[in-house]
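Model the whole thing, not chain by chain.
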Amino acid sequence: MTRQPRLAWLLAPATLFLVLVYVWPTLGLFRIAFNEVGPTGAMIEAWSLATWRHVFADSFTFELTLNSIWLSLTSTFLALLLSYPVSLFLFRTESRFRSLLAVIAIMPMLVSSVVRVFGWLAILGDRGLINSLLQSLGVISAPVRMVYNWTGVTIGLAESIMPYMILALLAGFGRLDRTLEEAARSLGAPPWRTFLRVTLPLSLPAIALAFGLGFILSMSAYITPKLLGGGRVFVLATEIFEQATTNTNWPVAAVLAVYTLALLLGLLALSNLFSRRLQT
Amino acid sequence: MRTRRVVIQAGLAALAAPSVLRAQTISGSITLMAYAGIFQDNYTRTVVEPFQRAFPNVKVNYAPGGTSAQMVGNIRAQKADPQVDVAIMDVTTSTIGNVEGLFDKITAAEAPSLDELYADARQVGGDFGPAVTFDHLVLVYDTQAVKPPIARLADLWRPDLKGAIALAAPPNIQGLALTAMVAKMEGGDYKQSIDPAIKKLRELAPSVQTFEPNPDGYSLIVNGVVKVATGWNARAQLFSDETKGKIGVLLPPEGSVFQINTINLTAGSKNRAAAVAFINYALSQAAQKAFTERMFYAPTNGKAAIDPAAIARTAAGAESRNRMIPLNWNDIIKVRDQWNNRWRREVIAAGR
């Protein structure tokens, strides 16, 4: 037996597992997308495009798509702004606590997302930490609404994807060479110019990688928009859940899920293309 | 004297013999899927445990099932190999199960308690699972923070409640029920048009803090997040007791809407005899009395002798029945998507 086929056998358990828990259910999802729903809400076994037509004729689907993309863009951008300096610091620091600091930075991943969201409700709510502080300082007279709207969801989502983005940035900083920065500084470039002309361009592949990951995680996020949105933030993920578990309309949920999957795959391909261009 | 007592005891024993014998011949385990949380706690104590005492050879596994739609979804997914024998859920979703063949028909010959039910409780499921509880939509409020207390549905539009209201918007059935109630408040009828209701709800939208109370409106009031919310009477009454009156419950004089839970026998149940025995027990006078007095769901068994004080706090109270808006949930299901879209585009959009 040659080396390659022997290696392929190593992939067999994982492949089998993926087929069982992912491919097979996804095929089931495709099948349900062609069923119909009767007037009582009962699902009718069929091979029909009626649900597809219904979903794509509804302008709300377009609105959901735009909402999902916009929410993902804003929260990922916010998360990037916050994650980049943290990652750069972790990458550069020679502190003996570097590992500990890295663990602290990604610690939110260890906490349930539901718990994190309820934490944000306690911080950003009308009677939360920030509003209480601002009111006690006399800065505001009435609470500023920061949850149950887009603001709350954007903040919560940015925080939830930050640990993943920090890890992606750290993994992508491989091409950052300190000697190039030192060369720029020795040639008289001030720190801000060194950052703009040397550090930032060299970290663009890492940024692209982290941005792609953050964007995709945001697109598929459900808990944060659901709990922090107050029923005002409609995105594809929440709509799929709503259709499946409140409306009992599995065919519509399946069509939206297939559509979201296709959208994400397309965006992933674009992100990969962009990353490769940056690396070449 | 002694002889007479022995004769009476023997007679009673002979009368009870068939049911005792039946109770001993039915055995095995069944899975009951129903709501979680306080429903599960109280239903287990007042119905499941007494049933198990009456049928010592039957074990009931209580599987908390989330929302009604999640429960019917679970049973749909298990259609080829059902793991659930009995399910309690909202009528809007059990109807789906009946149409899809997920549930079986039940006859009075196998479950005699069916003959003791109110006519509307029996009719709601047709030949399938009947109503097991009645409930209705109420307004719940913080009695310490809302001064003066709210007295009618129209009070939701009071300026002092701005930003302090939690409403569950459609497709949640609370939102659908509220739409019918506001339609009536505005002098109309939801069957004709919901335009006046939507117009009025648009005016309310800026006062609403959340259209999706999580985990529920009662908890948000207890935690001081909101002052008023919509809720279901039974749970609201229980929370009112548990919070020693912090939560107030109002059945709006403008009217309310019944919510109906049905009890359903899963098609292909692996222990049909025990499942039917459980359904029969759950609909019996004893079980209905115990659960109503515990949790204030209105009974569906017309012969259950329930404490008048408990009845007064349920949908079966005379005051409650008079205020109910006749609403056919099967009709609502047909317009649910349409109402849902109007809420999203007109009501919630006005409250952003």
